[in-house]
Design a protein that fits this description.
Blueprint: H1 7-12, H2 14-24, H3 53-60, H4 63-66, H5 74-83, H6 86-91
Length: 97
């Protein structure tokens, strides 16, 4: 089984998204849904400093903050324009680069 969804759906519509994924796979979701407030990635290694649930809501719920520190370097912008699938980006609601 293959499927795609925007990662932000897990952040802003977690319960509905997980329920849909469970149903798609032929299962059912647990009757008690629990949000993990701390970073699910842990504290060390390459994910040190990762945001938890509330910090992610604040960052990704604000259009200005969401794009802060992304594609600052012109080589990053050039790479994104050359390699990101424009149709897929549009399907997930991302603006053209």
């Amino acid at each position: 089984m293959n499927g795609m969804m925007p990662a932000l759906d897990l952040l802003f519509h977690a319960e509905d998204t997980v329920s849909s994924i469970c149903a798609c796979g032929g299962g059912t979701m647990s009757p008690v849904f629990r949000y993990v407030e701390e970073s699910a990635k842990g504290e060390g290694g390459p994910h040190a400093g990762s945001a938890g649930f509330l910090a992610s809501l604040v960052t990704y719920g604000n259009k200005t903050l969401r794009m802060d520190d992304i594609l600052k370097d012109s080589s990053d912008v050039e790479f994104a324009r050359e390699h990101l699938d424009k149709g897929l980006m549009g399907m997930f609601g991302y603006a053209p680069i």
